[in-house]
Amino acid sequence: MYCLELAGEADDEAFAALEADRAAASAVTRVAPGLATARGVRLDRVPTLAYTRRVSELLGRTDASVSSAVALLEAASIERRGSVAVRARNVRATAEVSTATAERELGGVLVDRGFSVDLDDPDHELRVCFADDVCLVGWIAAERDAAFGSRAPTDRPFFQPGSMAPMDARAYVNLAAGPALPDATVLDPMCGTGGLLIEAGLVGARAVGSDAQPKMAHGAAENLDYYLSETDWGVVRGDATALPFADDAVDAVVFDAPYGRQSKIAGHELADLVGGALAEAARVAPACVLVADRSWDDEAREAGWTVDAHFERRVHRSLVRHVHVLQRV
């Protein structure tokens, strides 16, 4: 069993758990604020997650008190040797516990069992996570690549306002293509500046995009060449309702539909554009994530999809993103 430390806010937890379940783990279950357990984890995929900070090999679970955590560790079978650091967290300040006391007392248990303490470069790190009335104790096994979140859309050679943050783009790619990663081909049929495709390439997939606007297709290609120079990718100019790809050509489709109530976009009424894109997505891939400013559940079902999950994620006061996680019927 494993402990997952989830990122984001409280409202992101179900979203984060599903991303982990689809892209890196199995049987993910939320057990407390910011914490989940998993039966199995592909540890090599953890660095490519967006909304999971760390994964630890679980030693045990107890109530959220230092004395109970100490008792758990004293009773645990430990075959490791060397130096150790104990890191305790009070997740979102939801537990009545002192993390400093926890680190000191659990560190003492490990010293008594033959470990030396090295806070800078330990051989092993023990994670002690308190949240609400739960404590999970485990050895850290893998961590998210936190550096990817420092990239901003404005850093790209080609930038347009309204571009999606890399952290969210990566999560949507993982939700769409997770089970097939890293050997997946991911298509964005409305690729814009290429933000979703950049993240697809960086998590190991082959990124393929199209956009009806020549300016966007050229700009996306410029961005992909900048970030994915060592990776196989492709961008074409094309209509999302008539994609130039064969049936089942890709493993997953992920796209960010136009926002607002524009009457016509690239020659299409908005409803016809999204409905047509969903139908084409169902033709070329078995899985899809659609991001939009409203629900398109009915249109997705009409296009041949089942709606596995639907999240409403607030970006700011005037924008709520609807995230549709779809599987082909």
Q: How are the elements arranged and paired?
A:
Layout: E1 2-6, H1 13-23, E2 25-26, E3 29-32, E4 35-38, E5 40-41, E6 52-63, H2 66-75, E7 83-90, H3 99-112, E8 116-117, E9 124-131, E10 134-143, H4 166-177, E11 185-188, H5 195-202, E12 206-211, H6 214-227, E13 233-237, E14 252-256, H7 270-284, E15 287-292, H8 297-302, E16 305-316, E17 319-328
Parallel strand pairs: 7-8, 7-9, 11-12, 11-14, 12-13, 14-15
Antiparallel strand pairs: 1-4, 1-6, 2-5, 3-4, 6-10, 9-10, 15-17, 16-17
Helix pairs in contact: 1-4, 2-3, 4-5, 5-6
Number of DSSP strands? 17
The second-level CATH architecture of the largest domain is 3-Layer(aba) Sandwich
- Write out the CATH superfamily name of the largest domain: Vaccinia Virus protein VP39
Structural class: alpha/beta
Q: Percent range for helical residues?
A: 25-40%
- The percentage of residues in β strands lies in 25-35%
Strand order of the largest sheet: 3-4-1-6-10-9-7-8
What does this entry look like structurally?
- The chain has eight helices and 17 strands.
- α2 (66-75) packs parallel to α3 (99-112) and α5 (195-202) packs parallel to α6.
- The chain has an eight-stranded mixed β-sheet with strand order 3-4-1-6-10-9-7-8.
- With 329 residues, it is an alpha/beta fold.
- The chain folds into two domains: 2-143, VC0802-like (2-Layer Sandwich), CATH 3.30.2130; 150-328, Vaccinia Virus protein VP39 (Rossmann fold), CATH 3.40.50.
